[in-house]
Amino acid sequence: MVRVRFNDDNPREFTLLVEDDGQGLNPTQIRDRARDRGILDDEQAAALDRSGAYRLIFQPGFSTADAVTEHAGRGVGLDVVNAAVRESGGRIGIATTPGKYTRFKIGLPRRDSQSESHSSAA
Questions:
Q1: Could you give the CA distance from residue 98 to residue 25 in angstroms, rounded to a whole number?
Q2: pTM, two decimal places
Q3: What is the pLDDT, as a whole number, of residue 50?
Q4: Which of 22, 71, 92, 101 would suit a FRET pair with 112, their CA atoms being 20 to 30 Å apart?
């Protein structure tokens, strides 16, 4: 099951939470896959902490899927989301428990419509 929640209570940003009840992220599996695909060498993989391993899932072409299916394995998705969020001045956080869930928290800045209309009219 996937849960999606939107929150607009913060005056500075909108928050989008996307959470699944799947396998969670396994930092060892992510490190191993990155090493197997030549993204990291053995030394880099050994030195990479859990947070660094999670950041790898945002790399273009990266996937931990064993096979390509209609919905997974092509390594297209999170890198595109990350680029769009960053381009808009936003941020993405990850919370996960292996074997239980993964939650992405996306914060997108609110835009002041008055200042935007003034700046485009100038």
A1: 5
A2: 0.78
A3: 93
A4: 92
Closest CA to 4 of 14, 12, 13, 122: 14
Two structure tokens written together for 95: 């919370």
Query: Is the model's pLDDT at 73 over the cut of 60?
Result: no
Q: How confident is the model at residue 116 (pLDDT cuts 50, 70, 90)?
A: very low
Burial 63-99 (b: 16+ CB within 10 A, else e): bbeeeeeeeeeebeebeeebeebeeeebebeeebeee
Are 18 and 4 in contact, with CB atoms under 8 Å apart? yes
Question: Which residues have CB under 8 Å from 49's CB, separation 6+?
Answer: none
- 45, with CB counted inside 10 A (0-12, 13-18, 19+), is buried
